[in-house]
Amino acid sequence: MASVFFPIPTIHRSFKSSTPIPINRFSLSQPRSLLPLDSCPFRSRFHFSSTSSRFIPLASTSSDVPPDDSLNSLEEARLAVSEYLQRLGVSEEESVSIASNSPRFLKMLVDGVRELDETSMWISWSSEGERPVGDGFGFKEKVALMAREKGDNGKVAFLESAGMNLSSAMNVARYLSGEMLPSLIYKVKYMKELFFSGSGDGKFIGKSARRMMTNFSIPPDDDVQQTLSFFEKIEARRGGLDMLSSNEESFRLLLESFPRMLLLSIQSHVKPMVEFLEAIGIPKERMRGIFLSFPPIIFFGTEVLKSRIMTFEKVGIVEMEFGKLLPKYPWITSNCIQCNLKQIVSFFELEKVPNASITDAIRSWPLILGSSASKLELMVDSFDELGVRSKKLGQVIATSPQLLLQRPQEFLQVVSYLEEIGFDKESVGRILARCPEIFATSVEKTLRRKLEFLISIGVSKTHLPRAIRKYPELLVSDPDRTLFPRIRYLRQRGLSKRDIAFMVGRFSPLLGYSIEEVLKPKLDFLVNVMEKPIKEVVEYPRYFSYSLEKKITPRFRVLKERNIECNLKDMLGKNDEEFAVMFMGDKGT
Q1: Cβ atoms within 10 A of the Cβ of 469, count?
Q2: For residue 519, how many other CB atoms are within 10 A of its CB?
Q3: In 10 A of CB 565, how many CB atoms?
Q4: How much is the pLDDT for 350?
Q5: Degrees (nearest 5) of the Cα angle 252, 253, 256?
Q6: pLDDT at 402 (0 to 100)
């Protein structure tokens, strides 16, 4: 391997004086002493800039504060940087803020100045015909010169003040070399406002991001891959993805992962996109969730977004509906999801699922589009074994499409539990078709506890299968917010615990009815208008299933006009023809 040589400036000394006399700031054309880089005494402290033909002190990695007059030095350095930034077009207030919030950058400049002072290397910074840097230059002037010589035009200091560490700021600044500092400051402020301001829904955004990662099983395109890498960086920090939208660290990682966004024009690119998203029904406060969950979307522009929306119009999802879909799953605008959409639709069409059900499933749970057709097929096969296919399969995926993303073993655990308590496969299939949400629950945390609750209120184990078969929704009803309030109300109206248990065993939908809309008005009518004892509903709890306006009231009036007394079952349990024959003397033709 060829040796790498490090240039050492040639310094002429007078025999009469030990003071170094600069001949010239050397250039490539001047004679220089050459030493192998490995043996150069300055290697660990300087690098030679071929563009400026000068020695530049390397950034110090020490975290120690400069010794001696460190406070005065740092204060002078802050002032020097602030004045330098103002010469670049930054306001005084902004420049002071940047200089005060970029301590690592300041320390790098101060250390660099001291290194050059100690080694008398300032002579290499003097141009022909110019006053030598070391001749009468004050500390502040040297810091300003050092800042200018870095060549980043103030970007490193600003990016550090925006939350980046020094090395990241230097990397990003190189990427943004063509940007003017005032323009960069405006862009960073705008982007930070766009991505990180708004309501405190950070945990929701983090939860959504984690769900997208978990349920993604197709080859990612470049945009999704970049997003996954960004999520992994956030997840590795304290607080993980829950801090996605509420942490300075997240903003730093966002800029490091997607520095290209700072090259976008705010006026001609970003603002038109924001306006377009508003036009399709997305409130501004929800946009940050979209941008944080899928940062590359900001590069697309309105025309690309319109073309991606057209793909969904082919499956019945129009532009305004897309506005509701995008916050749920921003990755639907990626190329890989757009391609997978066609495969998912084709798969369900082969399974003879109605197109309307496919569209409803996508509207309700767009995350299924991140799953491969082969993975969905595993769950569809499990449904098929229970007799749920074609139209019934359409009903299931339209109401509970999240079931498609379950692991088959989790689904089979619920099936096995229902079989243990007395259901055959056919009955389990009917329960799946009617209330698929049951199969997305935990056996231990939900189903077993619900059965224990029903037993605790007096429903016998022998009546449990019947109660669940008639109203499987019991297994996904919240005891505290749904079941207990109804039981409490019925007790207040004079029914005993045993009465309620008997009623639930015979007619389990009872506990699903609204107190204000069903139970109260029908009990009031029974007691106050029909003048019947409330105990009559114990023998016929199905009374609550009939319409008060369309059935209970009209039939009561017919019976009252004829002075006929009968129980609730005879009054309501017959169809219109049977009722007419029995109570209205209509024998038919």
Answers
A1: 15
A2: 19
A3: 10
A4: 94
A5: 90
A6: 94
Which residues of the chain register pLDDT less than 70?
1-70, 123-136, 198-202, 247, 586-589
Domain ranges of the chain: 71-178, 195-333
What's the distance, CA 225 to chain centroid?
15
**Count of other CB atoms within 10 angstroms of residue 443:** 15
Residue 468, token pair as written in the block? 């669940």
Q: Are 295 and 334 in contact (CB under 8 A)?
A: no
This prediction has a pTM of: 0.75
Q: No. of H helices and E strands in the chain?
A: 29, 6
Element (H, E) at 178: none
The dihedral built from the CA positions of residue 140, 141, 146 and 150, taken in this order, carries a sign that is: positive
Nearest to 5 by CA among 43, 35, 33: 35
Q: Is 499 helix (H, G, I), strand (E, B) or coil?
A: helix
Parallel, antiparallel or unpaired: strands 12-13 and 20-21: antiparallel
Strand partners, 12: 21
Q: What is the pLDDT of residues 111-159, one digit of tens each?
A: 988 888 888 777 666 554 455 665 567 889 889 988 998 899 999 999 9
The two tokens of residue 396 are: 């299931």
| 310: amino acid identity, one letter | M
Cα–Cα distances in Å, from 449 out to 178, 441, 442? Answer: 64, 11, 10
Which pLDDT tens digit goes with each residue over 441-487?
999 989 999 999 889 988 888 888 989 999 999 999 988 889 999 99
By the 8 A CB rule, do 376 and 347 touch?
Answer: yes
